[in-house]
Backbone:
């Protein structure tokens, strides 16, 4: 058993051979990453004519080698490390008729987030305020049968197939496809006092989810692993028992408190003196310059200001271009009035003439005799 304290994380580890087997085929490790995170790993070797311990040791070594160096999105790096361990186990240990393998469960704690990746039936738990609020789901045949409706949960626990694992590192020939481990879609967001527990099935087969926090209640991580190991041994110790308990002593994870970088365009326009790798915060001068320091309406750099010249004075005298023809003078209002009067008089004369013709003034006949037969 061992105990350690890293930044914001109190750790304790333990492994025990149990009361039945003659060899401890479990392996585990904890280590820091280059990016400031910390990894916890438990692997449970299995099968292969007693070479399960070799398989779990290879898995732990490769995962640490792959994950302890480099940077990047933790879930992608964790998945790649497990896949590399799977390939290494099969290349180094698999021979016809003997294909040892190993489970793997790993958690990468990084700035208040716990990323989880696993293959097999070794588990990771998140314990908060005396309750298991999340854990991994075993890759077991009985779970698939429960999902298919062929077994109940109670039947699955008593089934002879309860230890058949459907996904593991190794356990196959070198030419077969590499496994695809599971990774949590969303990391666990840690709060101060949360406990992360990783273990092999030597513990989780004998301790129910609801019991786990009760056994750990009020204990330091080192006391937790001791008490959990003793509980498993008291209940038969049928398998190797490996446990890692990590308590988060940092601040509660808060997405709103995370700094958000300013977009490059805003930097170029409003803060050209800052690096694109910086996060924007107003200086004292900028705070004095405007009321709301959270906006990006920072005064422009004098070098970026542009002086716009005033428009030239307009000459009100029109100057026709070479293509313009001189316009005819617009008729004034008086000629238009005279023309209208003349047209009205002419129309009146025509009306009078028409009436006179109709009355026979110009033919010598009256209206009464027009059209009458001769006498």
Residues:
């Amino acid at each position: 058993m061992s105990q350690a304290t890293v930044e914001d994380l109190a750790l304790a580890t333990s492994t025990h051979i149990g009361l039945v087997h003659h060899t401890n085929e479990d392996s585990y490790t904890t280590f820091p990453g280059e990016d400031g995170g910390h990894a916890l790993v438990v692997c449970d070797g299995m099968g292969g004519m007693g070479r399960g311990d070799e398989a779990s040791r290879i898995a732990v070594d490769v995962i640490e080698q792959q994950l302890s160096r480099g940077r990047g999105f933790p879930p992608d790096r964790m998945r790649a490390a497990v896949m590399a361990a799977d390939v290494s186990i099969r290349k180094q240990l698999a021979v016809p008729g003997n294909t040892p393998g190993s489970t793997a469960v790993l958690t990468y704690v990084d700035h208040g987030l716990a990323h989880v990746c696993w293959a097999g039936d070794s588990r990771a738990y998140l314990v908060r305020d005396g309750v298991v609020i999340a854990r991994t789901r075993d890759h077991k045949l009985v779970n698939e049968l429960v999902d298919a409706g062929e077994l109940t949960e109670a039947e699955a626990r008593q089934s002879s197939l309860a230890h058949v694992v459907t996904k593991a590192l190794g356990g196959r020939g070198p030419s077969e496809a590499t496994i695809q481990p599971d990774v949590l879609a969303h990391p666990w967001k840690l709060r101060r006092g949360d406990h992360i527990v990783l273990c092999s099935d030597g513990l989780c087969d004998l301790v129910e989810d609801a019991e786990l926090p009760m056994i750990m209640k009020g204990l330091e991580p080192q006391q937790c692993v001791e008490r959990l190991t003793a509980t498993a041994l008291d209940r038969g110790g049928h398998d190797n028992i490996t446990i890692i308990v990590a308590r988060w002593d940092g601040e509660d994870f808060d997405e709103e408190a995370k700094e958000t970088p300013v977009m490059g365009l805003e930097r170029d326009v409003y803060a050209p003196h800052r690096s694109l790798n910086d996060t924007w915060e107003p200086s004292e001068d900028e705070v004095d310059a405007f009321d709301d320091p959270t906006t990006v309406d920072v005064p422009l750099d004098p070098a970026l200001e542009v002086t716009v010249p005033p428009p030239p004075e307009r000459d009100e005298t029109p100057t026709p271009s070479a293509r313009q023809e001189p316009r005819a003078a617009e008729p004034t209002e008086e000629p238009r009035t005279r023309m209208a009067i003349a047209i009205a008089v002419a129309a009146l004369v025509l009306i009078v003439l028409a009436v006179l013709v109709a009355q026979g003034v110009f033919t010598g006949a009256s209206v009464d005799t027009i059209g009458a037969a001769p006498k």
